[in-house]
C-alpha cells in the first residue's frame, strides 16, 4: 500500500463506527477531520471530479466561516456528517472482500441469464437491487466487471456486445437505482433519517416499494425484446456454482445481525448496517484464513479503493450543511400550510434532483442541501413523509441521469461506452415516461 492516506482513511472509518457505538458527536467530527486530512494527502491520486468537489466544499465553508455565517456548532455538524457519509460507504464496501471468495459471484451472469427470457429484466433489476443493498457500489464493480470478462472470454463483439451491454448493464443500473426506494442501507435513507430523527425506513418502505414495482414494470416493457436477443447467446449452467448456499447463509447472517442491532440498541437501520457488514465480513475472513495482519491490509486496501466515492460523499455532506445553514430560516415559511403546498414541495424535490444530476451535480450533493431544509418545515407542522418519499424517488431517478455520478461512471468505464450515452440515450426515454406517472403518485399521497 502507498501513502499515509491509506491508514488515515481506514482509521477514520473505524473511529466513526466507534462514535456511533458510544453516541459521541465530537468523536464523529474527529473522524470527519481525519477523512479530510486523508483526502488531502491523497491529492492528485483522487479523480478530478472528487478533488474539485472537495476543494469547492472546503472553500465555501472557509469563506462562510470567515464572514461569520458559520459558527462552531455548524462546523462540528459539517465534519460529523462528512465522517458519517464517508464511513457509510467505506464500511459497507468491505463486503466486496467476500466477492473474491465465492465462485457463484464470479459466474453470476450465467446464473442470472438462466430461465425463461421473459423474466430476465425483472430478475436482473431485483437481484441488482438486493446485492447493492449490501455491497453498495461494490455491486456495480461486481456485475459490470464480471460481464466485461464474460464477453471477452466468449469473443462476443460488435452489435452483439453492444446489445449485451445495453440490456444487462442498463438493468443493473436501474436495479441499483431502486436501492434508495427499498433498502435500509441506502445513503438517501441515511441522510433523511439523520436530519429527521422522527422518520424511519419502515415508514418510507411501503411507498418506495410501490414505486420500485412500477419502475421495474416500465423497464420490463421497454427492454424485454432486447433481452430475448441476448438470451439466445447465453451459456446454460448444469448446476449451481460452488458456494451458493454459503453465500446465502452469510447474507442472512448480515441482515439478522442488522435486525438484532436495531431492536437491542435503537440504532437506525443504516447505522446498524454500517456496524454489521464490516464486523461479519472481518469475522468470516478471520475464520477462513486466520491471518489477521493480511486481513487488516486487505481491508485497508478495500477502503482506499473507494476514496474517490468517499471524497464525493464527504464533500457533499459539508456543502449540504454549509449551504443549508445560510438559507434564511423563513425562506419556505408558510409554503407547506398553503393549499397544495406539500405537493408543490414534493414535486419540486422529485424534479430538482434529476435535473441537477443531468447537468453534472451529483444527487448526494443536492439531497444533502434539500434535507437540511426539512427540519425547518417540520417545525412549522409539515408532515415530512410526502416530501421525504419524493426525495428518495428523485434520488433514484437522479442516479440514472447523472453523467458524473459514481454508478454511471463505473458502468461507462467497464462497458467502454460514453457516460452521456448511458445517462441520456439509454435512460432518457425511461425517465421521460416515468416522471408524469410519479408526479401523479405524489398527488395521491400529498395532502
UniProtKB/TrEMBL annotation:
* Taxonomic placement: Bacteria, Pseudomonadati, Pseudomonadota, Gammaproteobacteria, Pseudomonadales
* Keyword Protein transport attributed: no
Membrane-traversing stretches:
53-72, 84-104, 168-192, 204-222, 242-263, 269-287, 308-327, 333-353, 360-379, 385-411, 423-446
What domain of life does the native source organism fall in?
Bacteria
- Print the keywords alphabetically: Membrane, Transmembrane, Transmembrane helix
The name this protein carries in UniProt is Citrate transporter
Amino acid at each position: 500500500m502507498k501513502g499515509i492516506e491509506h491508514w488515515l482513511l481506514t482509521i477514520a472509518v473505524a473511529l466513526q463506527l466507534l462514535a456511533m457505538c458510544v453516541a459521541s458527536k465530537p468523536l464523529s467530527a474527529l473522524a470527519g477531520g481525519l477523512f479530510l486530512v486523508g483526502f488531502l494527502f491523497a491529492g492528485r491520486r483522487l479523480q478530478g471530479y472528487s478533488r474539485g468537489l472537495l476543494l469547492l466544499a472546503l472553500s465555501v465553508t472557509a469563506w462562510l466561516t470567515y464572514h461569520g455565517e458559520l459558527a462552531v456548532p455548524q462546523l462540528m455538524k459539517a465534519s460529523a456528517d462528512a465522517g458519517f457519509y464517508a464511513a457509510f460507504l467505506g464500511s459497507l464496501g468491505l463486503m466486496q472482500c467476500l466477492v473474491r471468495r465465492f465462485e457463484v459471484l464470479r459466474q453470476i451472469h450465467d446464473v442470472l441469464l438462466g430461465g425463461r427470457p421473459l423474466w430476465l429484466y425483472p430478475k436482473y433489476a431485483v437481484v441488482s437491487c438486493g446485492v447493492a443493498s449490501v455491497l453498495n457500489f461494490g455491486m456495480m464493480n461486481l456485475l459490470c466487471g464480471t460481464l466485461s470478462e464474460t464477453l471477452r472470454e466468449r469473443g462476443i463483439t460488435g452489435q452483439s456486445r453492444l446489445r449485451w451491454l445495453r440490456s444487462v448493464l442498463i438493468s443493473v443500473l436501474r436495479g441499483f437505482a431502486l436501492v434508495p426506494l427499498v433498502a435500509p442501507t441506502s445513503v438517501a435513507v441515511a441522510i433523511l433519517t439523520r436530519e429527521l430523527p422522527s422518520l424511519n425506513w419502515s415508514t418510507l418502505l411501503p411507498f418506495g416499494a410501490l414505486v420500485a414495482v412500477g419502475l421495474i414494470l416500465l423497464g420490463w416493457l421497454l427492454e424485454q425484446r432486447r433481452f430475448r436477443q441476448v438470451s439466445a447467446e447465453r451459456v446454460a449452467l448444469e448446476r449451481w456454482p460452488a458456494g451458493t448456499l454459503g453465500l446465502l447463509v452469510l447474507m442472512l447472517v448480515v441482515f439478522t445481525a442488522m435486525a438484532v442491532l436495531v431492536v437491542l440498541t435503537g440504532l437506525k437501520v443504516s447505522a446498524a448496517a454500517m456496524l454489521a457488514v464490516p464486523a461479519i465480513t472481518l469475522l468470516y475472513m478471520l475464520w477462513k484464513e486466520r491471518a489477521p495482519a493480511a486481513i487488516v491490509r486487505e481491508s485497508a486496501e478495500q477502503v482506499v479503493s473507494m476514496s474517490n466515492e468517499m471524497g464525493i460523499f464527504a464533500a457533499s455532506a459539508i456543502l449540504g450543511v454549509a449551504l443549508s445553514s445560510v438559507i434564511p430560516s423563513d425562506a419556505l415559511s408558510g409554503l407547506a400550510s398553503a393549499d397544495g403546498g406539500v405537493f408543490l414541495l414534493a414535486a419540486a424535490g422529485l424534479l430538482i434532483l434529476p435535473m441537477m444530476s443531468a447537468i453534472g451535480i451529483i444527487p448526494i450533493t443536492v439531497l444533502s442541501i434539500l434535507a437540511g431544509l426539512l427540519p425547518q418545515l417540520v417545525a412549522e407542522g409539515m408532515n415530512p413523509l410526502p416530501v421525504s418519499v419524493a426525495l428518495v424517488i428523485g434520488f433514484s431517478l437522479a442516479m440514472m441521469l447523472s453523467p458524473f455520478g459514481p454508478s454511471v461512471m463505473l458502468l461507462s468505464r467497464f462497458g467502454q461506452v460514453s457516460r452521456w450515452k448511458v445517462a441520456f440515450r439509454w435512460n432518457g426515454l425511461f425517465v421521460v415516461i416515468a416522471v408524469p406517472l410519479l408526479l401523479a403518485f405524489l398527488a395521491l399521497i400529498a395532502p
